[in-house]
């Protein structure tokens, strides 16, 4: 029991430590916590005595985290954040939970968001907080419960469940197509190509899929598919876009297919859940709902 108590410091001391670590000042931390500077100093001293470690390096003008303090500050910051999130969840809806979900910008807004009203209607006690993330990140550090991820099912220490496979095809605006002689995939290689920064080899793979060598010239680069689609509609060039993300533009005739066979991407869209969140009820509810919806869509 004594060992357990030693490993569980007073929450006030942890709050004081986190504030000093973040602000770099005992005075600023005391002001933020509405305490005296002496009280903050005593809290830090208690922690250092409890662990037998120096958490800060002090001189006459500065306060800096020690090596041990830097490691501990990161863990304390995450733990206090989790406690704040739990308190917010209890206060906002005592019978529910909160799902902190990372989404991809274009896929999230164009594919996922139109489906969310159904989840909200069927799960009124769960609140979803959305954040945008591209690429991998640390779930614990970001305090996120799950993510919609594009890539391969190889996220470390997490379960990756397939949602949707992706087919890409070259598209142009009708005006761009009408003003140029584009009859074969080879013709596309002589036109301005719009590139995605997150998929630098996409055009090379597509040309190889057509049995052609990829052109080597430069081209405009974009971070998000939505921006690339807008540039394509403005007549700036040919874009290689996922058909699942531009169905509206194709139906409205704002974009039209260019010559060439569509290609299924090697990567796909996955729901990624870290192992320590498997049993989190909001995550389980969201996963079950999303997989049921995906199965229904595939059936039709």
Automatic annotation (TrEMBL):
Entry annotated with the keyword DNA-binding: yes
Molecular function as annotated in GO: DNA-binding transcription factor activity; sequence-specific DNA binding
Keywords: DNA-binding, Transcription, Transcription regulation
Xref: InterPro entries: LysR-type_TF_proteobact-type (IPR058163), LysR_HTH_N (IPR000847), LysR_subst-bd (IPR005119), WH-like_DNA-bd_sf (IPR036388), WH_DNA-bd_sf (IPR036390)
Domain HTH lysR-type: residue ranges: 9-66
Matching Gene3D superfamilies: Periplasmic binding protein-like II, Winged helix-like DNA-binding domain superfamily/Winged helix DNA-binding domain
Transport as UniProt keyword: no
Gene Ontology biological process terms, A to Z: DNA-templated transcription
Family affiliation: Belongs to the LysR transcriptional regulatory family.
Name this polypeptide is given: Transcriptional regulator, LysR family
């Amino acid at each position: 029991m004594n060992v357990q108590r030693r490993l569980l410091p007073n929450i006030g001391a942890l709050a004081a430590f986190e504030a000093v670590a973040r602000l770099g000042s005992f005075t600023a931390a005391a002001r933020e916590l509405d305490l005296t500077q002496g009280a903050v100093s005593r809290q830090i001293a208690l922690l250092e005595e409890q662990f037998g470690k120096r958490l800060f390096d002090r001189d006459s003008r500065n306060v800096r985290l020690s090596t041990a303090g830097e490691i501990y500050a990161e863990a304390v910051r995450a733990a206090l954040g989790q406690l704040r999130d739990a308190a917010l969840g209890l206060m906002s809806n005592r019978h529910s939970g909160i799902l902190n979900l990372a989404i991809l910008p274009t896929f999230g807004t164009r594919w996922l968001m139109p489906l969310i009203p159904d989840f909200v209607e069927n799960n009124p006690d769960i609140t979803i907080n959305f954040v945008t993330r591209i690429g991998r990140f640390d779930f614990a550090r970001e305090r996120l419960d799950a993510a919609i991820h594009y890539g391969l099912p190889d996220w470390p220490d997490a379960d990756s469940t397939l949602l949707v496979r992706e087919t890409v095809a070259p598209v142009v605006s009708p005006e761009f197509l009408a003003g140029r002689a584009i009859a074969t995939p080879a013709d596309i290689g002589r036109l301005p190509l719009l590139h995605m920064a997150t998929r630098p080899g996409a055009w090379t793979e597509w040309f190889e899929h057509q049995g052609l060598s990829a052109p080597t010239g430069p081209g405009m680069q974009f971070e998000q598919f939505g921006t690339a689609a807008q540039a394509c509609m403005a007549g700036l060039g040919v874009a290689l876009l996922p058909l699942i993300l531009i169905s509206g533009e194709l139906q409205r005739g704002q974009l039209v297919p260019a010559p060439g066979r569509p290609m299924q991407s090697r990567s796909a869209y996955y729901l990624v859940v870290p192992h320590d969140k498997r049993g989190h009820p909001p995550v389980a509810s969201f996963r079950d709902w999303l997989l049921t919806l995906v199965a229904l869509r595939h059936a039709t």
